[in-house]
Amino acid sequence: MTVKPNNLEKLPEDLDRNRLPKHVAVIMDGNGRWAKRRGLPRIMGHRRGVDALKDLLRCCKDWGIPALTAYAFSTENWGRPLEEVDFLMTLFERVLRRELEEMVQENVQIKFVGNLKALPPSLRVEIERSMTQTQDNNAIRFTVATNYGGREEILQACRALATQVQQGILQPDEIDEGLFASYLYTSGAQDPDLLIRTSGEMRISNFLLWQLAYAEFYISETLWPDFDRAEFHRALEAYQQRDRRFGKV
Ligand code: FPP
User: Fold this and answer.
1) How many structural domains comprise the chain?
2) Is 166 contained in some domain?
3) What's 88's domain CATH number?
4) How many angstroms separate the CA atoms of 181 and 191, rounded?
5) pLDDT confidence of residue 243
6) Which of 202, 221, 226, 234 has the fewest C-beta atoms under 10 angstroms from its C-beta?
7) 159 within domain boundaries
8) Helix (H/G/I), strand (E/B), else coil: 148
């Protein structure tokens, strides 16, 4: 059945409500190219990217998907031109300040994962505020990966576990997958079932290396600012056609 683009407020009827991913992760790629194609500065792409992310969050909530994680800034992104990095930090701060009240009202629980200590202090204040004010919300869990690197996350877990072993608190053979996962930034969260990356790139780029072990990947050719409900619908259709075997036959 075809679904009209203006009829996507509710879950499209061709999707099976019982087989939706419980956690969707997104690598929002293509903001710079979106702007360049329009002769605009790259930062305009990031601005429009925020709108696309807001609508995806609302869409997940409307369609009954209980968790969304977005890759906003990687540990490698510090290598971008200083003015772009500064713009992004200010943008995150402004968006948090502007959107927090609505997130509280909409029962969104906000989490940040990554090495947050290295972020500008004024941004950290907004991050702390948003996490505290939404910690009891339960309509959807929205996780933003900021100054996040999968390898760094795994290393800091190893260091913490090694310290426990060194102090005699833990035996090496007590370290299993569950315990290890509890030392990651994402402790307590379910692993993503579906990873979407936009702009046609087919890389994982140091994102959730441990957590994506069994996720289905969906690559969209759309640049992130143009990623809309119709495109998300296509991603979910593809997901529901996959045969998830988790290594079994
Ligand atoms: C990748 O496009 C995008 C980013 C590095 C930034 C994404 C951030 C947002 C959309 C803002 C999110 C805001 C909050 C508060 C969660 P790119 O610049 O790599 O694009 P390109 O590959 O075309 O150069």
Assistant:
1) 1
2) no
3) 3.40.1180.10
4) 10
5) 86
6) 202
7) no
8) strand
* Enzyme catalytic residues: 29, 77
Amino acid at 221: E
Measured CA distances, 223 to 28, 52, 63, 80, 93 (Å): 8, 10, 22, 19, 24
List per-block mean pLDDT (blocks of 10 residues) for the chain, which spans 249 residues.
Answer: 66 97 98 98 97 98 98 97 97 98 98 98 98 98 98 98 98 98 98 98 97 98 98 98 87
**Mutation choice for ligand 1 from 31, 40, 93, CB with most ligand atoms inside 8 A:** 31
**Which residues have any ligand 1 atom within 6 Å of their CB?**
28-33, 46, 49-50, 53, 70, 72, 77, 92, 95-96, 144, 199
Helix (H) / strand (E) element for 88: namely helix 82-105
DSSP class of 38: T
Instruction: Looking at the CA of residue 144, tell me the nearest atom of ligand 1.
Output: 16
Does the pTM of the predicted model rise above 0.90? Answer: yes
pLDDT number for residue 249: 81
